[in-house]
Amino acid sequence: MSQVMVMEGSEAVAMAVKGSRPQVIASYPISPQTHIVERLAGMLADGEMDVQYLKVESEFSAASAVSGASAAGSRAYTASSSQGLLLMTEVLYASAGLRLPFVMTGVNRTVSAPISIQVDHQDTMSLRDSGVIQLFVESTQEAYDTHIAAFKVAEDPHILLPVMVCMDGWILTHSYERVAMIEQEKIDRFLPPFKPANFLDPLNPKTWGSIGEENVLMELRYSIQRAMELGKSRIKEVFSELAEITGRDHGGLIEAYKTEGAEIILVAMGSMAGTIKAAVNALRSKGEKVGLVKIRCFRPFPYEDIWNAIKGARAVAVIDANLSMGSEGAVCMDLKAKLYGKTNAPAVIDVIAGLGGREVNEATIQDIVEKAKESLHSDYSLKEPYWAGLNEAIVP
Fold first, then answer.
1. Is the model more confident about 311 or about 378?
2. Which of 167, 161, 156, 163 has its CA nearest to residue 233?
3. What is the per-residue pLDDT for 2?
């Protein structure tokens, strides 16, 4: 039987990484990610891990270290948050272009200025175009399971891309939950040692990062796009394989929650999905036909699965904990683009919520549902995102 323990979310991630048997870990602290790499360092000091643990001088160095380790054929891991993730930007673009399959945790925290250590999705969302696969989690248990799956996804020979597991800072990393561990022998069967097809070897020289002129660069970019698109089915398979081992099914690329017969469907990612589920239950008990689509895999974007879940609805409210300045939330932009031209597509409204840790509670969700109901009227004309909970009296 699997052992069930009460632990902090950061420790659960560290336990998942330990169970995945990485060969190289690069560590640089930044709140609220720090406890993950601290716990991994403690495991090494206690003799619980056999790993090369690198204490580097910046997040740029951490990303560079795991990229180099991956190029050398090692299973590698790192983690960061907020400004630290943005400092990794140059390396992450290069790592995807070099097809280096390491895993990292993107602990979501808002980006300055003003300075804030609270949670929203602006940091990881800013990296959505880098070629890194992004998986979002709702709970500590899902974070534990998803990190183990992430290594198998990244290292699949048809994918070979970095995978970032995105988890909300503080809400998940620093809260305590019951977490069911997976026995090490089961993890080893699910995730055998990494056997790269391409790696740095002086006996078999190959080139990484060479000049890509105009006659090849588009083709190389297309290969990443194709790996993303074709990888959707493989990501689903990996999640299903792990669910068979654990008995826990968090869903595939999305989780459709009470969407059957729903007139209004909310779309969200991360820990707020738990609050939305509670709100949906309460609204359903009052006869309201409301459901939720929780996006688990944001990149590649699972528009086919989302469409299948929402096509019977009359209105969809996309709750974005991010903002593409001068436009709207990134998730809503993606969804609108994919729904363009579809017959009888539901009305879509963008909701900006939770920025800088602003509370999203059941009352907030009820307010959003009421706003979605307005979109059902023929004279509805909201052109800008709806800012849930905004206090206009203090806007500078």
1. 311
2. 156
3. 79
- 104 and 79 Cβ atoms separated by less than 8 Å: yes
Does residue 155 register a pLDDT over 90? yes
Identity (one letter) of the amino acid at 106? Answer: G
Domains and CATH numbers, the chain: 4-198+210-246 (3.40.50.970), 254-394 (3.40.50.920)
Res. 208: pLDDT tops 90: no
Q: Hey, which residues does 4 pair with through a beta bridge?
A: 180
Alpha helices by DSSP H, listed for 158-285, are 184-190, 217-246, 272-285
The amino acid at residue 230 is: L
Cβ atoms of 234 and 159 within 8 Å: the answer is yes
- Amino acid identity at 363: A
Closest CA to 77 of 134, 43, 37: 37
DSSP secondary structure code for residue 194 in this structure? P
For residues 71 and 120, give the distance between their C-alpha atoms in angstroms, rounded to a whole number: 32
* pLDDT score of 376: 85
Task: Using alpha carbons only, give the angle 323, 329, 333 rounded to the nearest 5 degrees.
Answer: 140
Interatomic CA distance for residues 309 and 30, integer angstroms: 38
The string of pLDDT tens digits covering residues 261-284 is: 999 999 999 999 999 999 999 999
